[in-house]
Amino acid sequence: MAPVSLAIHAPGADLAPTVDSIRYLRDCLNNDLIRQYVTFHVFFSNKHIPSKIPDPETFLLTPFNCTSKPPYNVDASSTYMKSKSLLYPVNVARNVARDSALTHFILPSDIELYPSPNLIPRFLNMIARNEKPLNSTKPRVFPISIFEVDAKVQVPSTKTELQAMLIKKTAIPFHKYVCPNCHNIPQGQQWMNAAETSQMDVFHVGKRRGKYVHWEPIFIGTHQDPYYDERLSWEGKKDKMTQGYILCVKDYDFMILNNAFLIHKPGIKHYAKNPKRDAIAGRQSSFVKNVIMPELKKLYGVRNGCAL
Q1: CA proximity to 67, closest of 28, 35, 21, 25
Q2: Are the C-beta atoms of residues 257 and 122 closer than 8 Å to each other?
Q3: What CA–CA distance (Å, rounded) separates 146 from 94?
Q4: Which GO MF terms does the UniProt record name (predicted)?
Q5: Among candidates 169, 256, 274, 160, which has minimal Cα distance to 208?
Q6: What mean pLDDT, rounded, does the chain reach?
Q7: What is the rounded CA–CA span in Å between residue 97 and residue 38?
Q8: Among residues 59, 52, 69, 161, which one has the least CA distance to residue 116?
Q9: pLDDT score recorded for residue 5
Q10: Measured between alpha carbons, how far is 70 from 23 in angstroms, rounded to an integer?
Q11: Alpha helices in 111-240 (DSSP H)
Q12: Which has the closest alpha carbon to 232: 88, 34, 30, 61?
């Protein structure tokens, strides 16, 4: 229950069904939440400009025909993006969504991550109380613990429910079977063991170094935080690592929240070999090492213990 700024990559012929989907969501669902809370921000590369672009000022004035089936029920393999073998510019999307957000605090998250209920009012209540360690002057972000749940279970709505599922193994820490170190959160085990409390507080102040040097947290931050590098694609993996490096060099505090969590869309992920994606990831990895890393060192300097 908070404003949502949603960025959607819609190159070429993908624009028309995207626009129709937005209209369907705004006009045809039996509640006003999407109209009240969601702004949609559509982007595409200058190499893939759609042949016909609706006028943003007027296209919403014509009500959508709600008897047709939802335009977003498409086969992903039939999209323009797929037919042209385009990579997903995930960091362009993140920056577009973030720049379009009008609030002071922002949670740059992915659409398949569901925030725990009441996260926003509880977070703002914590900020208003401004108790220790919040009153420090260091730059900070607020990472949120992420979990996966079994495809057949109901998503937990409280930390207590989540803890019961962790015991039953119907919930696991995010990417446990894919890349455990990428989301290994400082004091993660203690967080899972600590009982739920009635209000939100900072559970632990961590750093992105030592055994957490490759941590890719998702966090609540502000417009002052470094941007995501738009040259990196989703297929190339580890697309948030360069931002993590900058946060480390700038000596950010990572204020981990006690009762807040994100649940990935149900279904536990296992590592599956994907030679095509592995090749793209290999190229991206060497680009980061040989091109981006020297730039970051010039721009931000180095700090002991910080690495990609």
Answers
A1: 28
A2: no
A3: 18
A4: glycosyltransferase activity
A5: 256
A6: 94
A7: 11
A8: 161
A9: 98
A10: 10
A11: 119-129, 159-168, 188-193
A12: 88
Cα angle 63-18-217, degrees, rounded to a multiple of 5: 125
Question: What's the pLDDT tens digit per position in 54-84?
Answer: 998 888 898 999 998 999 998 889 999 999 9
Answer whether 0.85 is exceeded by the pTM. yes
CA–CA separation, 58 vs 35, rounded Å?
Answer: 16
| pLDDT higher than threshold 90 for residue 125 | yes
In one letter, which amino acid is 275?
P
Q: What is the average per-residue pLDDT within 269-277?
A: 88
Given the structure tokens 């607020």, which residue do they identify?
142
d(CA 303, CA 64): 54
For residue 266, whether the previous peptide bond is cis, meaning omega lies within 30 degrees of 0, is no
Q: How far, in Å, CA of 81 to CA of 91, rounded?
A: 16
Confidence category of residue 1, pLDDT binned at 50, 70, 90: confident
- Give the number of other CB atoms < 10 A from CB of residue 145: 26
Whether 84 and 12 have beta carbons less than 8 Å apart is answered as: yes
Q: CA-CA distance, 287 to 296, in Å (whole number)?
A: 13
Task: Kindly compute the dihedral angle of the four CA atoms of residues 277, 278, 281, 282, in this order, to the nearest 10 degrees.
Answer: -140
- d(C-alpha 196, C-alpha 203), whole Å: 11
- Residues 109, 260: contact at Cβ < 8 Å? no
Q: Pinpoint the alpha helices (H) of 28-146.
A: 33-37, 80-83, 90-99, 119-129
